[in-house]
Amino acid sequence: MGGYLKKGASRLRYELGYKAWQIGVSHPKQASYFPDLQSKNVVFSLNSGRSGSETLQKLFECVDSVHSEHEPKPGFHEVMRLVQTRQDMATYFVQSCRFPVIARVNKPNYVETSHLVCKGFFETIMASAVNPAFIVLKRDARLVAKSILRLGAVPQRTRLGIQFYLSPSPSSFLQIRSDQELTDYQLCYWYALEIEQRQAVYSEVLSRMNGRQVSIKTQDMNSFEAVLEMFAQLGIEPTDKDLTRLRERVGGVYNHRPEAKKLETQTDFQSEEIALEKMLVPNIQCDDVLSNIRRLSTMWS
Hints:
This protein is an alpha/beta fold. The protein has one domain: Rossmann fold (3-Layer(aba) Sandwich). It contains 13 helices and seven strands. The chain has helices at residues 8-22, 30-38, 53-60, 80-83, 87-103, 122-127, 141-151, 159-164, 184-208, 224-233, 240-249, 269-277, 286-297; strands spanning 41-46, 66-69, 109-112, 133-138, 174-176, 212-217, 280-282. It has a five-stranded parallel sheet, with helices on both faces. It has a two-stranded antiparallel ribbon with strand order 5-7. α7 crosses α9, α9 (184-208) packs across α12 (269-277) and α9 crosses α13. The radius of gyration is 19 Å and the shape is globular.
């Protein structure tokens, strides 16, 4: 799986940077960028991908006081696979590669809508002293699964699936209790349910930590009123000029990709979903995440 971390050189770069970070060399001292970072209204998103995350970014782009990004570089996907078994790598990446970049943004609001944050980075972000807000962006699991399947991005089995999407593992929030081989669609549907479970658990974590969060469904981004309500909950105040741009953009379609794969019409999606759901057992709970956040907080002190 490591071979899908863009290029071998990319992985080596992060490995060497991580080793330097471990011994306190070459990573920015927190004091050097934390004041700028903590002065900003930082917002991330918890979503599955194929759920309107780029549309979400385009909406925030309409507001002059917001610097919005969809999947900025350096990208979380470059270390996502490493992070699944090495949480300290997530802390290194956030401390040394993402937060310093955000701190340099010259606007009071920073919004990032990448679907990678909930794949091993939420815990270390919560362990920091940044206090970001999170947008929980929800879309029907079947629609997500079918969209991923059309792209040919099957988790665990294809290049895109391995690079950008989670695979069943001991650290999954939903464990598969069966030796039965899953179909491509079942893997995609498992992934969609896995993200739903993470959203539910992380939402509970945010509630217990008095964190900031707002929930919105994909279809509600077509509603001007719903978008304004989301902005208000995040403390973002559009000007009249911003609102004019926003009215023109709400309802637009972004990141629509031609189907790479036609879905087999004979596939019985409901039967495959029911069979998979019988194999699933919740694994990671709210208390587990809170314990992990407490452990990771020592790496921020």
